[in-house]
Amino acid sequence: MIFGVDYYPEHWDESEWENQARLMREGGFNTVRMGEFAWKLFEKEEGKLDFSFLDKAIDVLSKEGIKVILGTPTAAPPKWLVNKYDVLQRDKYGRKKGWGARRECCANNPDYIAKSEIIVTEMIKHYKDNPNVIAWQIDNEFGCHASTRCYCEHCRKKFGEWLEEKYGSIDNLNEKWGNVFWSLEYDSFDDIILPAYNSCEGAYGDLWSHNPALDLEFRRFSSDSWVKYQKLQIDILRKYTSAPITHNLMGHFSDIDAYDLSRDLDFVSWDNYPDNQWGDSEYEYVSMAHENMRGAKNKNFVVMEEQSGPAGWDILGSTPRPGQLRLWTYQAAAHGGEGIVYFRFRTALFGMEQYWYGVTDHDGVPRRRYYELKRTGEELQRLEKYIIGAENKYDALIVKSYDNSWGHDIKRHAAGYNYENHLYSFYKANADLNITTAVSKGGYDKYKAVYMIAYNIVNDAETAELREYVKNGGTLVLTFRSGTRDEYNRVRPLALPGVFKEMAGIEAVEFDAPRRNVSVCGGVNGTARIWCDIIEPDTAETICAYGSEYYKGKAAVTVNRYGKGRVYYIGCDLDDGAMREIVSVISKSAGIETIDAPKGVEIINRDGYKIVLNHNENAVCTGVRGRSLISGAEFDGTLEGYGAEFVVPCGP
Ligand code: GAL
User: Fold this and answer.
1) How far apart are CA 90 and CA 155, in angstroms?
2) pTM of the shown model
């Protein structure tokens, strides 16, 4: 299995390479990912390609048996390129992005595309027969540093073409978008604008300044632009190699559709930094990010950058505690990570990331983190058959929809509402009940419960598929703000909850965005604050009702029998405790087993064994006893702080 480090030989004197490679080998690292920011080193002057520096580095590494994943270097354009060609992105105010960091180029810029094609072609021609290059990474983190959407003239023209292909005629587009509103009809596709700065924005901040149809299509187009740019590079590589190709995605990041971006890749990889300058993540949040990345292709993935030290650009986040690097490694494995590469081998002495600590510190001397990873690597190689190709026994699915993520971002419905947080609240409740939960889309029949959270933009094919799923015995969970818009981001002329009204067996006759606590009581007890649908059940039963406001006594959460299955409708947001209660009720009725374990304990179900993780600093009794697949010894259920086990349980 890939157990590696991200490596930047260009940051070190050549005289240090051999020692660094030896330390890698001694630490058990068998792979490095490199090259992804070294464009200037490969092409010092336009058209003068020279890979000798990388050849030497690969050679040194190969002597220690270390293989290489090569990154195409297009995330960091050299200065000669931006001097000669106008390749830089424009923001929504028309301002040119400055050079001096990375990810500043536009995916639709013909010169950037042409120069990318040259460097990628030359690179693959040079390395196609090198047996030490085992895989390729395209570029680096598309969309990072808010670079998904560019507002330049190239993008505007391409957007027009993209729309013409989709809508056929401008009249059709005008009609679908409702451009009659405020006299916004276009006469031709050449007229198309981008949702840039306009007269509304100054008045209300950067929200609401454009027709939501335009806004949504621009997000789709921008996402597609990077998918297309990536495909261009993939196609070049494919002409010369059959080595697997990946890109390093970003977990929860939603500006680019991860289903589309991963479609053309052999495997997904992603970059995981749980605790850094910008805050510490809850463990469920990290698990959900892993699931999101597994769900992008419904296939196991590689972590291409895993945090290996304290991390920050100007200030530092907390230092990984003893045991935590091992725990994060097992957490990745538990959610489908079948290879892991730690960022980075040695901490940089210069540049933006001097404080982004790696496996070793600035002096390159192995210390605690290095030795912890060495031990972890040894264990992992023994556990390989439980990691490579391993599958979880998923009971529940949280549907992640990029259209809905963008749609909710464009119109947020209520102060404090956030689609991603809403999804996470359901993932967290499931995870806290130790329900093994996937995050993906489609394939509903594989799951006992499917959560379509705030599924606002929904097309007819999706509705039909869901209807079948429930009729055949599935459990579908819907929430407020579901079923009300079509794929053009138009509101449907239907009573709430729109296309789901019949399936849910209710009508939401009114709603309230209260911005103060509203009590909810009955089968589930707690508080709502952001949104309350006031429900009139038709064929549905009420699970709980509101306990305050003018709608006191009105249904808040309902369940409806539909065919052989059930549809739950959760009409309000709920605090963490109430979320756990309702997910527990839903799971019980769907025949999903929940496991009561102490807070911070994560249990993942696999065929014949369980993965048990203790995210607490202190030892806890997890309640899972049996035989450890890591040590072969009996496991009495007690896991040390930040401990991890693969356990074959011995009875109840
Ligand atoms: C990632 C990126 C790396 C490095 C790392 C630490 O987002 O891919 O190149 O910048 O973060 O900041």
Assistant:
1) 10
2) 0.97
